[in-house]
Amino acid sequence: MAKYLISFPSAAMVVPEGELEAVGRDASAVIDEAKAAGVYVFAGGIDGAVPPGLVSADGSVAEGGYSWAPPLDGGFTVLELPSREEAVAWAARIAKACRCMQELRAFGFDPRA
């Protein structure tokens, strides 16, 4: 079994007016299904109200993220699945619920962590 990261940037999620409540309900239903199926690892989103900080090895903190990188935001789900094909199927379910395409990546889980 491998872990897969299913994600989308905030800008990709363009919800028609009046559908936000349905999106939340549909997305929660998919997460509940993943939990019931025993494939759920974790899910959540980046809190855009809290700015990122770059922390150096000496513990000093600089406001903001990497200036050269695209912003890290949006929603993230990690599922443990037996195949990439099943990961694609779950990503499609999340895409339908969130009304936007999802990025799919194998997640490099460290079992020692």
UniProtKB/TrEMBL annotation:
Highest taxon listed in the record's lineage: Bacteria
SUPFAM superfamilies documented for this protein: Dimeric alpha+beta barrel
InterPro entries from the UniProt entry: Dimeric_a/b-barrel
Designated name of the protein: Transcription initiation protein
Organism for this UniProt entry: Ramlibacter monticola
Lineage start: Bacteria, Pseudomonadati, Pseudomonadota, Betaproteobacteria, Burkholderiales
